[in-house]
């Protein structure tokens, strides 16, 4: 697989759940811990986690292994601000490989998803299309980091505005669900057989 860095975007709030989505139980561990553990097993390097809302509580309740944690103090500005914080950290560390942007509330992403994206990555931005719907994770090549950071917008909005940068990788199945509401938890557990 193409060498990749990874950024887990886990800074946003989840008041509708009544608790941080990063801490809901997933396979007998906090969701964020599960997602980070999966990514670590796929040999992404480096692996960065961007926290924001309730960062101290989340850090105190999770074991994120060797992942580097950075805090987005401007998390209220939205997903694009967390992407900027994560990419800026990689740039300061002189990382030169493409970066995989992963959502911290989407546990159904698999190694197969990432391998298909990496195999089709032709530079710039590579994103999945799930039954005609764009989604995550997204690969951003090093040559596009400055463009993405300067816009401070969610990556899907940037991709829509600049289709000439985008390589689309198509998947027959619907996107793995994101967990935003209490009802999403049960549906996602049923779909993926998680405890």
Proper CATH architecture: Alpha-Beta Complex
In CATH, the topology is named Spore Coat Polysaccharide Biosynthesis Protein SpsA, Chain A
Sketch the topology as an H/E string, one letter per element: EEEHEHEHEHEEEHHEH
CATH class: Alpha Beta
Q: Taking Cα atoms only, what radius of gyration do you get, to the nearest Å?
A: 15 Å
How do the helices and strands line up, and which of them pair or pack?
Layout: E1 5-10, E2 25-26, E3 29-30, H1 31-41, E4 47-51, H2 55-61, E5 68-71, H3 79-92, E6 99-103, H4 111-120, E7 125-130, E8 133-134, E9 138-140, H5 145-151, H6 155-161, E10 166-171, H7 182-192
Helix pairs in contact: 3-5
Short description:
The chain is α/β, with parallel strands linked by helices and 195 residues long. The protein has helices spanning 31-41, 55-61, 79-92, 111-120, 145-151, 155-161, 182-192; strands spanning 5-10, 25-26, 29-30, 47-51, 68-71, 99-103, 125-130, 133-134, 138-140, 166-171.
Question: Can you walk through the features of this model?
Answer:
The structure is a single chain. With 195 residues, this protein is an alpha/beta fold. It has one domain: Spore Coat Polysaccharide Biosynthesis Protein SpsA, Chain A, CATH 3.90.550. The protein has seven helices and ten strands. The strands form two sheets. Strands 1, 4, 5, 6, 7, 8, 9 and 10 form an eight-stranded mixed beta sheet that branches. The protein has a two-stranded antiparallel ribbon with strand order 2-3. Strand 4 (47-51), helix 2 (55-61) and strand 5 (68-71) form a beta-alpha-beta unit. Helix 3 (79-92) packs antiparallel against helix 5 (145-151).
